[in-house]
Amino acid sequence: MRRKWIFIVPAALVGMVLFTFIGGQVVRLLWNWLLPPLFGWRRITFWQAIGLLALCRILFGGHGFSRSYSRGRMARRWDRMTPEERERFRQKMRERFGFGHSASESKGP
Question: Engineering a disulfide at 28: which of 36, 42, 49, 76 sits with its beta carbon 3.0 to 4.6 angstroms away?
Fold first, then answer.
């Protein structure tokens, strides 16, 4: 088993470096091809493209959580709720996001 790791770890490291390099090049080429002619923005370097790639990963990458996992988890929780709990949940969502009136607003002075 230990011999297997001798090949897997270096291959994984090379794969990550290659993936990062190709991703940075793609971002740099697309940016420099599209944005300067369209909007007059400056051209970027490879390292700036890597920074953009990292920033997009931070902002839009989901931080390693799978959406399908989250969706399945919520579906399981929903299935375990009673009809009363579901209606209470719906009402709280409506109140939170402005689609219904909260109990304090419906009470008169």
Answer: 49
Nearest to 23 by CA among 57, 67, 64: 57
Contact between 75 and 67 (Cβ < 8 Å): no
- Taking residue 89's Cβ as centre, other Cβ atoms within 10 Å add up to 13
Separation in Å, CA 55 to CA 14, 36, 38, 50, 58 = 22, 20, 22, 9, 5
pTM for the whole structure: 0.53
- Helix (H) / strand (E) containing 65: none
Distance CA 31, CA 25 (A): 10
